[in-house]
Every structure is written in C-alpha cells, then in structure tokens.
Amino acid sequence: MPHYDHYVIIGNGPAGNHTAAILRENDGDAKITIISDENIFFYYKPKLTEYIAGGLTKAELMVPGLSFYREKKIRLRLGQKVDKIDPERKIVFLNHMEKIYYTKLVIASGSGARVLPSMRSYADCLKHITTYNQVMEYKEQIQTAGEFFIFGGDLVGFKFIKMLCKMHKQVTLLIYPNAFWPFNLTEKMQEIIVKNLSRQGADVLVNDDISQIIKKEDTYIVKTVKGVEQQVDLVFSFNGLIPSVEFAKGCGLDIDHGILVNETMQTNVPDIYACGSCAQIYNPKINSYTTSIGWANAVVQGKVTAMNLLGTHRVIESVDYKYFDLEGVEIKTTWWEDIEESSFI
Questions:
Q1: Domain 6-110+244-332 class?
Q2: pLDDT in tens, the chain (345 residues)
Q3: Inter-CA distances, 186 with 197, 209, 233, 237, Å
C-alpha cells in the first residue's frame, strides 16, 4: 500500500463529487478515485426531464468536464460496477474481479428505481428514467410516442408528467400512495396532487391497481383492478427510489433501506463512510435513522464526509432548502427538524 491515503469513492453524483473536491482542496498528495457504473461524467439529474424535452444540450447537462478531473488529479473509473467490498483487507472488487485497494472508502452510490414486488412479473414492460443511460435509451421513444401510462407517482414521476403534458402527450396516471418512500402520502395530500395534475391535462386514477400489462407489438395494453383498459405506447413506473447498496450487503455494514451512518456520516465499519441518498443518517431527536433527499442535502453530506475523513469532527446540519413542492404539497427533504402537521396540507 502507498504511504499516502487512497480515497475511493463509489458514486459519481453530488455527494461523491463534493467529497472528492473537498478532499483534494485539503490533501494534495492523496490518491482519489471515483467509481461509477454510468459511462458519463457528473451531471445534473434534476435536469433530465428538461434534456428529454430538448430544452437542454448534453453539454449543458454536465456539471464539470474531463478537464476538471485532470486538473484536480481525480481518477475516474466510469462504466465500472462494484461487485463487493472486503473491509478487512480494504478492497473494492469490480464486477470483473479487479481489485482496488483503499485506505478510506466513501459509499455515495445513490438510489435506483424501485420496482414493487407485485409488479416484478411486468418488469420488462416498465420503463424508468432515473439515470442518464435510461434517458438515452428511451429519449427518442418518449418524443415520438403519443400515449403514456404512468404507474406510481413520486417526485421524479410528477416532474416527468408535467413535461409530457407540456409536450401535448396523452397521459394517464395511476397514483399509488406507497410510491413515495421515504415519505408517506396522506389522503389530503393525494387530493391536492390529483387536483393540480388534472388541471395540467393528466387523467388521474386513484384507489385502483394494475391487474395486467400485455405487450402487443409496439404498444401495451394496461388493465386495472377496477376495469380500466387502455392501449398506450409506453408504460413508466415511478414508485420511489431504493438505495443502490446491493454490493455492500454481507460485508459487515449495518444496512436497513440504506447504509446506516451516524451524524458524522461514519458507518459501523472503520474507515468507511456513506453519504447521499444511499445513506440513512441517525437523528438523535427522534432516536432513529432517516434519509435526506435532494441535491442540496447531498452536497452538504459530501462536504461533511470529506472533512471528517480529513480528521475534522463535523456533525451534519440542516440546509436552507428543506422541502420539495409536490404539486401544491410541501414534502420534507431533511431529517433534522420535526415539521408541524400543518405544513403538509
């Protein structure tokens, strides 16, 4: 092993990149490696729908380019999927069994689309747009298709629906209250959301469920429990996100939905930290672990993680941006403070 630190960061989103940037600012000699299973530099995920609609170029979607990583001497391993971690030997194994040794490891692997157990038999029919690769696969189809069936909802889904309505597509949404993990959608919140989406031209179904999806040449027939039957061009599932931590299971890390960390972003295993939406942070006020979402929260977590890796004791704190506006309903994005019930109606 080299005499200087090798920081290995799994994940190329805001949490991972801000961790890397702060580490480099404060440690000019350390080796820093970012591993990502996507074949693309750090990009603005919240702008993917704008990119689909043609309002943004690929260059405008990028945060830094290759020159940034070269200048900062940060090594990028793109298109590399992590298979497992060996904390005892401090090794990250890539899926072709290449070994990457680390002195300190940061897991910032983010989250991926959640497929409900009841829908797994239809997984081949369901499309998702949580990553750039998925967008590139479906972008042309989305632009040319006329009729869409959306199952679930969630924050990304509603943004996608608004985009489709502006593109004058015919959209049917079967809203699914359990699509919003880590949030709970109450009946009052659902009423407000349905009202606002209907105003934009979407046909919203409530208190129903998908009973069958049939692939028919280039279209799909979607049937619901209550007897609705529609033939559409594309079916999309937006049922919340699930932390991308499969590779970390079985290595000794404490994992619930995501990787459990304390207020300094440390896991239960020495020299391993986690940050971003793959992490569940301990909140001493409620004596529980909860997840924070959104770009601003990921940036703060990345910065705190880096400072603690460097030996400065930092405790995660709130950011100013604490809510998403979900079609007229304020949704909490942070774990720090209790929010009165009136904030949700």
A1: alpha beta
A2: 446 899 999 999 999 999 999 999 999 999 999 999 999 999 999 899 999 999 999 999 999 888 899 999 999 999 999 999 999 999 999 988 899 999 999 999 999 998 888 899 999 999 999 999 999 999 999 999 999 999 988 778 888 998 999 999 999 999 887 776 556 677 787 788 888 888 889 999 999 999 999 999 899 999 999 999 999 999 999 988 889 999 999 999 999 999 999 999 999 999 999 999 999 999 887 788 887 777 888 999 999 999 999 999 998 875 544 444 444 445 444 433 433 333 322
A3: 16, 17, 31, 20
Q: Where do we find the tokens 């989305």?
A: 142
Determine contact, residues 179/153, Cβ cutoff 8 Å: yes
Name the one residue in this structure whose structure tokens are 């797994």. 120
Task: Say which residue the tokens 């869409």 belong to.
Answer: 148
Tell me which CATH homologous superfamily contains domain 113-240.
Answer: FAD/NAD(P)-binding domain (3.50.50.60)
Q: In terms of Cα–Cα distance, which of 242, 54, 67 is closest to 143?
A: 54
Taking the whole predicted model, whether its pTM rises above 0.85 is answered as: yes
Angstrom distance (rounded) from CA 100 to CA 91: 6
| Contact between 196 and 327 (Cβ < 8 Å) | yes
